[in-house]
Amino acid sequence: MKFLRSAALAVSSLLLVSCDFFGGSDESQEPSATRTAEAPSQRSNAQEQAQDTPFVFQRTSVREDRIQPTLCLHFTKPLDPSADYEPFVEIERSVAIAVDGQALCIEGLDYGQEAELTLLAGLPSADGERLERDETVTLTFTDRPPVVQFAGNGIILPREDARGLAIQTVNVTEVSVRITRVNDRALVQRRITEGFSGAEGRYEYTPYDEEPGELSSFVYEGTLETPGARNVLTTTLMPVEESFGELEAGAYYVQVSDASAADRGESQPARAGRWIIVTDLALTAYRSASGLDVTVRSLSSAEPVGRTMVRLISQANEVLSSKVASRVGRVRFDPPLLRGEVGDRPKLVVVEGRGGNFAFIDLDRAPLDLSAHPVSGRQQAEDVEAYLYTERGIYRPGETVHVNALARNAEGYAADDRPGALVLRRPNGLEQARVRLDALEKAGSAYAAFELPKAASRGVWSAALELDGLGQVGSVSFSVEDFVPQRLALTLEADTETPLALGGTRMVEARLRFLYGAPGAGLRVDGSARVERQPNPFPQHEGYSFGLHDAPYRAESFELPVVTTDGEGVAALPIAPEDLGEGAAEPLRVRAVVRAEEPGGRAVQDDVRIPYRTRKVYLGLKPGFEGSAEREKPATFELRAVDGDGVPLSTDVRWRLIRRDYEYDWYREESGRWRWRRSKRIVTITEGLAQPGADAALVSTPELPWGDYTLIASHDGEDLASRGFWVGYGGRSADGTPAPDSVRILTPDEGVTVGQEITVAIQPPYAGIAEVAVAADGILSLEHVDVPAEGTEVTLTVTEEWGAGAYVLVSLYTDRKPGIQPIPRRAVGAAYVPMNMDGRTFDVALDMPELVRPREDLTVTIDGGDIAAGQEVYATLAAVDEGILLLTRYASPDPEDYIFGKRSLGVDVYDDYGRLLDPDTGEMGRLRSGGDAIGGAGLSVVPTKTVALFEGPVSFGSDGEAQIDVAVPDFNGELRVMAVLWSDDALGSASAPLTVRDPVPAELVLPRFLSPGDSAEATLTVDNVEGAAGTYNYTVSTESGSIEPVSGSFDLSAGERREASVPLTAGDPGVETYTLAVEGPRGFSISRTYQMETRGAFLPERRYARATVEAGGGYTPPADLFDGLIPGSVSTLISASPTPIDRASLSNSLLSYPYGCTEQLVSRATPLLYKSDRDDRETRILRETVETLLERQGPDGAFGLWRVGDRSASPWLGAYAVEFLAAAREAGMPVPEAALDLAHRALQPVSMGELYRAYGYDTRIRSPRYTEDTQARLEQRSSAYSLYVLAKAGKADRSRLRYVHDAQLDEIESPLAKAQIGAALAAIGDRGRSENALKRAVATAGYVNRGDWYQTINRDAAGIIQLLAESGRTEQAAALYFRADENFPDPLSMTTQEKAFLLKAAEAMARGRDQAFLTKDGSQTQSDVLDGIPTGERYDNAGDETIYVSTLTEGIPSEAPTATSQGIEVTKAITDTAGNEVDLTTLARGDRVIVKLTLNRAEQRRAQLVVTDLLPAGLEIEAVLDPGDAVSGPYRFLGRLTRADIAEARDDRFVASVIRAGNDPFSFAYIARAVTPGSFTLPGAVTEDMYRPQIFGRSASREMVIAP
Predict the structure, then answer these.
(1) Where is the stretch described as Disordered (predicted)?
(2) Residue-wise pLDDT tens digits, 436-446
(3) What are the pLDDT digits (tens) for 514-566?
(4) Above 80 in pLDDT, residue 1431?
């Protein structure tokens, strides 16, 4: 029985995959596409039988379930799928032939036909055998399967003069008809769709809410005769009067089916269902923030219909409001009615007219698509909107962000006296800071200066203005990153419009200038270019795709030559792709990245994108459907041929339609594991010839069944375009709701003013009645106008409501003419009319010199132009280094363009003209009635400075000016000075460059850091821009004297710039201050200082020693503990403890842990929670930990492992983080109550054992192949910990807690989880259950789960000790504590979890044994911190008891550590950008290299790994490569790259973390640039398992030499 169940599961799995149930992956579990899947013995028998069987034609079979029949000729042996069988098949018809295993399948014949086919002798099998003689077969096909469907996609049937309802059939002589009606008020419970069509023998599911069901009442049942030719689609009109009777307005549901199917024994006949709305009324609805405007008109005459009852119906079927339409058929519903939620949400607008007329608009449907009209712009605000700006777009952590907000109403006037707040939000969207505003003052403005945390997360931050009652009304975003300002401005000029031809060359001019004003002469310029697909190559051919969809061009790169700028700072680079891209089917482009090298080696870059055409003809395809094509219907495409400029060509284009069929073979490995492999076959369905010209050619396929299809277009025998598509799977035609015709509207060319009368010209596509609306944030006016075919003009009066501008909307409707124009036509148009805002715009000018000297005071005068007397005007002024602004291409604040600029159309337009049925299509049929009526870490300093100044808001004086003093810093460059002005009714802004420089700018360009032993060449540049000609002497020195002063001189003529190399040699790690002094003619003298860090060349090593010191004994740190460490880098902690568990060493070890996932952050900061005497550094670390954790909290309250929303943290880790934050809040840290409450709420489903509802956490357990963990274990430990954390907060579900104890405690394997249940029960006062749970926890200690990263025996023991003590069971805790403390390893061998939990245990059990002292030089101390290597220090135990002394030291190795592999290997390969290995001793400044790190694990266990690659000081990272760059990009030679969970390019290192299972190698890569000449240590890359320190790998260190 067990075997049968297993077999049944295997078969069901096979069926699911063979049916491609999950969408069909192209990946196979085996590389082979062999389709044989027998067991070995079966294969052997089959092979023996095959050898005895001759290759002969065996039988035929016919598939009749498709639009065209398929005949398959079966042979006794498999055929060759790659062979051409057409020469061996004779038939007097054009057919398509495809191999299907042992069958040759023929397509292209029609139903009801007979044909003769001959298989010729010599037809080969797959193994080379041949058919011995000709075989002739007579082919006879039956008729097409029956089809029943409705014509078109409409649902609205005009009530007056409607001849009938069009039914389409194939091979159906009569259909059964059933009509029901649904009460108007019940429509809100249904979705009114186009219904369904079902083929014979096929089950069709219709959603419950798309059928009338129990809401319907019977109207009619009978049959309709549908005569027609065999196998031909026939349209028959079902007579309205005979079926519907007197055609009453309302909602009907019509069902039709093949009446004769039952006679053939078919239980699933061909059938269709369709909603039909019978009405003579039409509605147009305009929805906006100002309300809902509705107009009613007649479908027959297009005239407005007044005095009708219009109701707004909610989702809950309640009448929200009823109003009688005005004489011109207009009704308005106020905005509050539209703001309801859930059941109060507006659903329908229903109109009831005279004579029972009825119509409705469903507000859940999409509004009209007006994207073809000029309605784009800034989003409309509902009431008040705010323009927010900062002084720049990028900041470093710890800097101050100045935010100013200007709040305006819909007309652009100040929104004063509104209370609210300015809010600063972190990249995860959570609040960092809030400044409360009692009211908006100073003409509706608000200002705040936000200081960023020094540990601010990198990423995009935002600031927003929130107003009470309105929420957020405006926001601004900015980046927080480690950046270095540019010194150069790079401008590129090239022809980017004319396509570059194959083999051609295009010149790019690069113009460089130093930001302090001098030309960038004598500088190196190079670059690289990539030939790639051009997105949207021909915008004039919207919707077309060019090229082969499944064989896209793979990008190729080439390097640009190195050139040098001339005396004016100009260089020309040729872009010559030569023959790259030759043969590509799609239009290409060349993206050229041009890099200019600053003095010192750093690069600034920009790019140009040039169209690139490698052929003369391109083919494009545009589908006539959205998503998938509809089943059993033709799929249509538009086909175009164009030249390289997109100009249409007249030419012959061959096309063919193919289908991809997939088959899956299952087989069983010797291990018993089932695997599968997939094979694919291509079937040609049909082909044809198209002749596109000025207009596109239409390609229409046959009616298609379910499947995966591709349309391929070729020119001159070469495939140039293809489009893959699915048939079925929810497809619908793109013309289901026809786009309206267009009305052209002509408006004034210039801005208009209030009170002005303007003329609007209407140029229609046909005559009709126009509804002319003026719209801003809502409908301002509406009128109806008769429009003749030649057009007309309308006069409109501009009012103040037009604000900064308004739209004119025209909807043109025609009447309905039965028999001539059975469907009334509708056309729409839109045009924007801007207001003239000259009177509300300040003419701002900045009065300041063009050039100032550094270190001087400057007064900037802001002139507001013609300011009216008594007008209160305010301003802000910012002056920011242009080199910072260029990094983000920051645009100066421009509030007038934002507030007074064009806004998007804030009105959605609804009507149902696109859902009208044609009641005149087809021949009238005869009805017959009858039947029943029943149914983290980095550099501490970098040698760069941020220059960004901000002042304001300030008030203007009575003279219309404001004067602001600016202290110009020590800086050579360009400041962009930006002023913003505002008053109650006006806005203005201006910006201007301000050059800041010494007469002779001098700069020392240092690397970002050095390492001990490095020798480097800094770059000194002295530019005599405006100084006297002569000798300039310079000296470079250090504060500590670590290098000998370097002196020299330049003889400079006017305008000359010279560079010199300054040799640097790095000493011990630390921060050094460099001073540059320059003196020259006429008393010129400057002095500038820079700070640079000497960072260790290798990651620090940590070493540990422990000794027992008896009473009266002494201790001297062992000298060999410090062997091989750089003395200046060594820091040592010597501490005493009364027990072997040394809390000081544990704390120090945790606090110096380098990495920072959420678990490590919490564990690292845990010691600080227990210190009442934290110093400033410790308080800062604790505060920054809290801030970082909160940055990783998502809106759902869950915490990410590395960043917000990464869903990589387990729910257990979530509980760990929440427990820490709660304790930090009790310790006085700034943990917002709202954030903690949100975190507790995220733990609630975890505590209930409902991990599937813990959306923000990773609740999955991977394959048992990679872990010993189980889903049950994860749920048990996560639920227990969450219950404990919630119980401590008073938020646990008591009944759930008791239930877990009573019913599940025996099932819980983890002793720590049992102890947490016990402690949680103690927290709610249930001591009996608590005692039992804790006792069981102690009894089961020793549990091991290697699949849980955080679990060890020692961690669990320490946690149980803590919980016992916390629950008041100190004796039990003490017994376990003293039993366990001798078993704990030294801190360097512990995981962060072990250290943190052990520290908690030590704190809980320190009573009576919490102090031990050492005596040094007569003074007692518990611990001693030494900088440098100890030199014989002695520590004595002057007490009466034995103490334990620990020595924990950290230092940088003086020699390169050897390569090692302890369970994991890491290798580092360095190549050039083309993949060639580079000689690291012959690099030159400006060279770019790719560093590839490959990791190889020895085991398959799932683990969290981190890799750290310290940079040599001469390299700087340009970019971290994405896996996509190595797949289809220019770096394919790298092979597959891994996407890291987190990857950072820091100043001095690359760091990545990844969770990985299995032992397949995986790689990361980044691009670096050689910046600083010199000789540098190239450290080895280091990787480790973050929770098993013994799993560790390091690559070899090398030397790198960079030539100038």
Answers:
(1) 25-53
(2) 999 999 999 99
(3) 999 999 999 999 999 999 999 999 999 999 999 998 888 988 889 999 999 99
(4) yes
DSSP type of residue 1077 = E
Per-residue DSSP letter, 1322:
H
Which tokens belong to 1288?
Answer: 């401590």
Order of strands across the sheet that contains 281-288 = 330-333, 291-298, 281-288, 907-911
The pLDDT score that the predictor gives to residue 399 is: 92
Q: Token pair for residue 1008?
A: 């970002």
pTM of the predicted model as reported, rounded to 2 decimal places:
0.68
Closest CA to 1100 of 1552, 1578, 1425, 1450: 1450
Phi, psi of 1227 (to 5 degrees): -85, 5
CA distance 1239 to 1560: 37
Architecture of domain 625-733: Sandwich (2.60)
Question: Residue 1106's pLDDT is what?
Answer: 79
How far apart are alpha carbons 23 and 17 in whole angstroms?
Answer: 9
Q: How far is CA 215 from CA 392, 524, 1138, in A?
A: 61, 79, 82
CB 969, CB 854: distance < 8 Å: yes
Enter the tokens of residue 602: 């750093």
Tell the CATH topology of 53-140: Immunoglobulin-like (2.60.40)
Residue 20 has pLDDT above 50, yes or no: no
Beta bridge partners of 783: 772
Structural domain 1139-1410, CATH architecture: Alpha/alpha barrel (1.50)
Q: How far apart are CA 426 and CA 452, in angstroms?
A: 10
Query: What is the percentage of the chain residues whose pLDDT exceeds 70?
Result: 88
**Which residue stretches of 1068-1157 are H helix?**
1143-1151
Residue pair 591/607 in contact (Cβ under 8 Å)? The answer is yes
Q: What is the pLDDT of residue 1049?
A: 95
Question: Do residues 877 and 892 touch, judged by C-beta distance below 8 A?
Answer: no
Arithmetic mean of pLDDT, 321-329: 92
Q: Is 1509 helix (H, G, I), strand (E, B) or coil?
A: strand
Whether 643 shows a pLDDT value over 60: the answer reads yes
Of 1410, 842, 1331, 847, residue with least CA distance to 1137: 1410
CATH architecture of 147-279: Sandwich (2.60)
What is the distance between the terminal CA atoms of the chain, rounded to a whole angstrom? 79
Token pair belonging to 94: 């054009």
Q: Is 944 exposed, middle or buried (0-12, 13-18, 19+ CB in 10 A)?
A: middle
Q: Cα–Cα distance between 1569 and 953 in angstroms, integer?
A: 43
**579-610 confidence digits (pLDDT tens):** 999 999 999 999 999 999 999 889 999 999 99
Superfamily of domain 384-480: Macroglobulin (MG2) domain (2.60.40.1930)
Residue for token pair 């006085």: 1228
Q: What is the pLDDT of residues 30-71, one digit of tens each?
A: 333 333 223 333 333 333 444 567 888 877 777 655 556 778
Backbone angles phi, psi at 887, to 5 degrees: -60, -35
| Nearest-angstrom CA–CA distance, 769 and 794 | 13
Nearest-Å Rg of the Cα atoms of the chain is 40
The predicted structure's pLDDT at residue 1602: 96
Q: What is the DSSP string of 529-562?
A: EEEEEPSSS-TTSTT-EEB-TTSPPPPEEEEEEE
The CATH code of domain 1002-1094 reads: 2.60.40.10
CATH number of 503-544+553-613: 2.60.40.10
- Cα separation, 1067 vs 1010, in Å, equals 9
DSSP notation for 997-1064: --SS-EEEE--SEE-TT-EEEEEEEEE-SSS-SEEEEEEEEESS--S--EEEEEEE-TT-EEEEEEEE
Output the CATH code of domain 1460-1603.
Answer: 2.60.40.690
Position 417 pLDDT exceeds 90: no
